[in-house]
Task: structure prediction
Amino acid sequence: MSNVRKWELFAVVLVAGAVGYVWYGADSPPVEPPIVALPPMPAVEEQAAVPEIPGFRGMPPMGYRPNPEGTDKFLKSMDKPTIREAGPELFKPHNARPEGGTSLYQAPQEGAYPYRALFKAHQQVYGEEWVCGTQGIGDCVSWGWHHGVAIASAVEFVQGNTSEWKLPATEAIYGGARVEGSGHPGDGMKPYGGYSDGSYGGVAAKWVHTKGGILYREKYEKFDLSKYSPKVAKEWGAFGCGGRGDSGAADAIAAKHPCKRVALVATFEEAAAAIRSGYPVPVCSNQGFRSVRDADGFSAASGSWAHCMCFIAVRYDKPGLLCLNSWGPDWIKGPKFPSDQPDGSFWVSVNTVNRMLSGKDSFAVSAVDGFPFRPLDNADWVYNVPQRTVPFPSQYVVAP
Result:
């Protein structure tokens, strides 16, 4: 084929593509730019190919889209943005150090497991056992915050500090964060949030705490949130909390139930101190994991996930935080610790926790005003384990 003929064909293809774009694209719904891949995380403890997750075709949905500028702007709007500023009592030596240990890491005997409040509250309110849900689109940030708010409020309910408890609705968190929390109108007149998936920790914190609040897993006059719906999540993610044509009605309801306090958490020590007093930590990061737990209930860091989950417990016999995912109860297998560890969760080591929190887009959640120290020191919260005879390495010791 001659060069002239090749150029003629190339010109025809260009013209046809332009006509197709104008003809078919004019009425297409607006979409956001594609997600830009972040640089890889620092070297992890073990790199391995992430296996196919049971129950999904290929990798399951994720949806974390970091926005450091957005999170930083939200933090600057707060009077006490970090957990150390918002909850200084948590870090006093007699509060921060578990019984039996000279520091957070040296030979402590106790851990704290506030997820047990969720078990109790769910059984009491709904008459059935709680089961880990499964996200259907890239709305993981709303699931991480759903778990954080659910457990924080369940702690208050089980402790007798409030007479009501209900599961939060993920769809409202997702839509509110993507639209109203991101500075768009809450009138539901346009798909301001676009039709691609994803969100980030700072804007979810902004929505539940200052810009909006919480809707619950129940039927309202104009919409039904009693069961999770990926379709509703997709629509609300575009049009905002309440969906298309809502005119701000759902926003007004959510604003009656704000999350009382949120605070940035950046280290294992900070997350552990928060969790010991019943404040879970929705965690946003690019860290991936294997779909099998080891003999101690830990999952090895592996690969990269743009994902949000939630830290819901702390242990010190082998220091780590318990991470709850939103891919259902069966995506991960293997031993548990303790025996009532939630299905769908896994323990994460100190080094990996610090790496995940270093992105500074993870927040402790409180259902009360502030982060007061509360010793959850009864059998329902604390699980005693054998004391180590050899202390942990000195680099883990925290100064008073």
